[in-house]
Amino acid sequence: MKQAKTVKLALRAIGMNKMRAFLMMLGVIIGITTLTVIVSVGKGASAKVMRSVQNFGANAVVVFAGGGKVMGPPDEKTNTLTLEDSQAVMQEIKGIKTMDTAIIRVGRTVKYEDNNTNTVIYGGTVNYGDAWEWAVESGDYFTEEDMASMARVAVVGKTVVRELYGSTDPLGTNIKIENVNFKVVGVLSPRGTSPMGMDMDSRIVIPFTTASRRVFNTPYVSLIRLAALDPNQVEKIESDVTALLKERHHIQPGFPEDYRVSGASSVSKMAKGMMGTLNLFLGLVSLISLVVGGIVVMNIMLISVGERVKEIGLRRAVGAKKKDIRNQFLIESSLITLMGGIIGVLAGLVVSVLLPVMSKGKMPAMLSWEPFVLGFVFSVLVGILAGIQPAKKAADMDPVIALKS
Amino acid sequence: MIDLKDITKTYRKSGGMEVKVLQGVSLKIEKGEYVAIMAPSGMGKSTLMNIIGCLDKPSTGEYRLDGIEVDKMDDDNLSSVRNKKIGFVFQSFHLLARTTALENVQLPLIYSTDELDMNALASAALNEVGLGDRMHYVPSELSGGQQQRVAIARSLVNDPSILLADEPTGNLDTASSTEVMSIFDKLHKDGRTIVMVTHSDEIAQRASRIIRMRDGKVVSDERRAA
After folding, report:
1. Which of A223, A378, B108, B156 has the most crowded Cβ, counting Cβ within 10 A?
2. How close B122 gets to chain A, by Cα (Å)?
3. How many structural domains comprise chain B?
4. Which chain A residue has its CA at the smallest distance from B116's CA?
């Protein structure tokens, strides 16, 4: 039998009952839409995780003061992490290339002339650039002398520049941080968003000593950032630092730590874990829709075979072989699910385009060719599996009885 | 052309009881004959038709069609034989709804393995039954007589060895019956072999040979001068 004719026949049979065809497709549409969203969001998420890890620093280990919280900036009331801790880490842990110790305060008001904005004040050391692997775009970082003299100098991030200066060159100007005058000596190169979703370019870096004694008046450390010599040693350093601080802070087994150690691996694990839960849920939705869709297709096809007994008898009488009848119904069910699959992929791509916009970037999505392949394979597979039983029933009909019905 | 020898057909009913529908039918039909098979209902004429039409197989006996032993063929080969050598006309037309006359007539050609000009063959067949101007009508737009003529065109399209008509006028009024029967007359005149099942004497009188059956056996076989 001519294949093109078979497809044409099947399309006509589908077209004869459009509402029924749509209902048959519905489960497949939902299943494939979800599948497409999973793929797009999954790809977007893993790209985001990659960027995050890159931003975090592939060889970085960060100690945050204060435990408990999953992520986010350290609490300024936490008085647990000290300069002595950071010195001990530097002395006792092997494989550290460089270390930056910082006091961090978020949401502080900064003024330049009549403009003001809120930003993160980061009181760090001269190792800042190396520890963060972060270059200045113009000007320079502060020096050891600036540290020693508690100089009022600042290196500003791109977001701060944009919000305070517009197009003016900030180098050499004076800004007010917590009503203390600072001279801008450098501008940080742009860095983007942190793994926690914070704008890393919204920060001003000042000498640790200045932050500690002139601005915030605190001896306690918010954060210690280490750069490992070898990125493969990151996990070992993480656990070594954790063990060392546990000992120094006299944390009893079973009690929560008052600090938190994160490395690139734990950052990507966390980010992937969040996406993984969502993917598992969506994957289940997709699977259930496809299975239910398949069952619906099978049942309606069985009804359709029952309604078309005479037609089957006639086709057999004029020369259709069993396999012609079987193929006709298999192609019909596969075409229906394939149409559902195509609609599903398109709907899924639309959702994938809208999702990042509606979630304001929290759910990134990446369009790709994979949904088309997956949609095609899964929808046709469902169609064939759902069609087997009805097609067999149609093909095995006795033509004599079918014609008499 | 059709050569049946000692054909029997036994059905097993659901109670396990066996019903002998055909009890040894031997029959030869030559090319160009116009045969009417007459029998009261349930006397095996439909079963005989189905066997001649290769839709059903005899329980015992031999059947040669155009010299081929069809009683030993498997399902796929029987389908091919039906496709090439048999043209069915049914009492209830069996046209596909919402499908044009032309496409209905093309149906047997779809299942042919030969490369054919389906449109040309189908329109020729429709012209033969006088429906050349109704090719793109769907069955619901045609009268009963016209629908049966479409069905006859469908049975002719593959240029079969025999036309098998099962009560072709059973669902038609007198006028339409006459219309359909005159087509069969014409086809007979053109040299077609026709086997028709009917219980109407009036219809049977048009045939060149009348075979009467009773209780699964041929009881009379009467040839008439054309």
Report:
1. B108
2. 14
3. 1
4. A2
A-side interface with B, Cβ within 8 Å?
Answer: 1-2, 5, 9, 12, 16, 310-311, 313-324, 399-400, 403
For residue range A78-124, what is the model confidence (pLDDT) as tens digits? 778 888 898 998 888 888 999 999 999 988 999 998 898 999 999 99
Burial code (b: 16+ CB inside 10 Å, e: under 16) for A219-233 equals ebbbbbbbbbeeeeb
Say if pTM beats, i.e. exceeds, 0.80: no
Strand pairing report for A136-139 and A180-188: antiparallel
Chain B residues whose C-beta sits inside 8 Å of any chain A C-beta: 50, 53, 55-56, 75-76, 79-80, 82-84, 86, 88, 90, 94, 96, 98-99, 107-108, 110-112, 154, 158
What's the full length of chain A, in residues? 405
Say what angle helices A370-395 and A264-307 make with each other, to 10 degrees: 30
For residue A292, give how far its alpha carbon lies from the nearest alpha carbon of chain B (Å): 31
Decide if B111 and A315 are in contact by the 8 Å CB cutoff: yes
Q: Is residue B118 part of a domain?
A: yes
CATH of the domain at B185: 3.40.50.300
Q: How many CB atoms lie within 10 A of CB A381?
A: 15
Tell me whether residues A320 and B111 touch, CB distance under 8 A: yes
> ipTM, 2 decimals?
0.94
Which residues, 6 or more positions from A184, have their beta carbon under 8 angstroms from its beta carbon?
A139, A153, A154, A155, A156, A170, A171, A172, A173, A174, A175
Å between B202 CA and nearest CA of chain A: 25
For the cut 60, the answer to whether the pLDDT of residue A350 exceeds it is yes
Residue B107 belongs to what domain range? Answer: 31-57+80-223
- Angle formed at CA B42 by CA B12 and CA A400, multiple of 5 degrees: 60
Write phi, then psi, for B177 (nearest 5 degrees). -60, -45
Q: Which residues of A touch B56 (CB under 8 A)?
A: 400
Structural domain contains residue B65: no
Residue B63 lies in a domain: no
Please say whether the beta carbons of B192 and B208 come within 8 A. Answer: no
